[in-house]
Amino acid sequence: MKIKKFQKELKQRKIDFCILISDDINFSYFFQEQIENSILVIPSKGKPCVFVGPLENIKTSFKKLKYKNPFKDLKNLCKGTIGINESKITVEQKKRFSKIGRTKDVSDMLVELRKIKTKEEVARIRKACYLTEKILKKIVKNFNFKYEKDIKNFIKIESIKNNCELSFEPIVASEKNARIPHYSGNKRIKKGFLLLDIGLKYKGYCSDISRTFYVGEPTKNDVELYKKVLSVQQESIRSLKSGLKTKSLEVNARKMFEDKEKYFIHSLGHGLGMDVHEAPSISLKSKDELKEGMVITIEPGLYHNQGIRIEDDILITKKSHKKLSRFPRELIIIPKL
């Protein structure tokens, strides 16, 4: 992905080589495959190469080199200034890289590069959303779960059936448990709101979708609370366009919650891609600006006596936006168990 653009930026910063280890997700971003114990070398000009272990047998368009002593081999190859992702290496690794040559941190370059998605990246996120929504539909259609963990296990089994990994550990929170945004327990499902936060990873790219259902018959106040969260989400999504400061999204969402703003205890959203949380950020402290090609989530919530969150994945386009997740947002009522 975007090798030539990255090489151009390396040249502008007077960095001769960038070295990425296979534990770094940016390795997979460029290499488009996950392999272990390997090192990717991207020169400022010329063809990238990958150092692999003696037992690795992979096919790649990059030049492939078998290593015996990786740091010694790198020192022989990389003459000049090398770029490293300091946010993804250990102190010991940094010391060893510094023995190869003068190092410069390129973590900010990688963050900026991954903010804007290619058509292929967007297609993978859209497919991840589609597969996630297939699972949500099955949960609602055949709801016979007794405990929160029953739903979690169902999600995990379905993700395997769809040849996907989980983007993160699913959140399944019934009634008062939904007041905790990152709840991780296992209680019997009770009457009240049931919050599900699910994400799948398709070919390396994540979805992140939250829906809140109601088990049993909701009160008028329950319905009004849900409508409030939904209206904040709809208005926030409606305003999305290239050039918009992400901080303003957060400010406006909090204004829309009015006297309930104190129960909105996390940020409005975040960037989405190979990581489930990546740039741009959407918060009161953010200095980011929306640009065409970014994929973000919008997830307002209220957490008081119960919890409600509605989250969708959105692509920013040249003039507006496109919803990548399509599962119904209206309150779905599940008959009492």
If you had to describe this structure to a student in words, what would you say it looks like?
- The chain folds into two domains: 3-114, Creatine Amidinohydrolase, Chain A, domain 1 (3-Layer(aba) Sandwich); 119-334, Alpha-Beta Complex (Creatine Amidinohydrolase).
- It has a six-stranded mixed β-sheet with strand order 4-3-2-1-5-6, with helices on both faces. Strands 14-13-15-18-19 form a five-stranded antiparallel β-sheet. Strands 8-9-12-20 form a four-stranded mixed β-sheet, with helices on one face.
- It is an alpha+beta fold and 337 residues long.
- It is built from nine helices and 20 strands.
- A hairpin with a 6-residue loop joins strand 13 and strand 14 (278-282).
- The mean pLDDT is 94.
- Helix 6 (119-141) crosses helix 7 and helix 8 (220-238) packs antiparallel against helix 9.
- The radius of gyration is 23 Å and the shape is elongated.
Write the layout of secondary structure elements.
Elements: H1 3-12, E1 17-21, H2 25-31, E2 39-43, E3 49-52, E4 63-66, H3 70-77, E5 82-84, H4 91-98, E6 103-105, H5 107-115, H6 119-141, H7 148-161, E7 165-166, E8 171-174, E9 192-198, E10 200-202, E11 205-206, E12 209-215, H8 220-238, H9 246-257, E13 269-271, E14 278-282, E15 295-298, E16 301-303, E17 307-309, E18 312-316, E19 321-323, E20 333-334
Helix pairs in contact: 6-7, 8-9
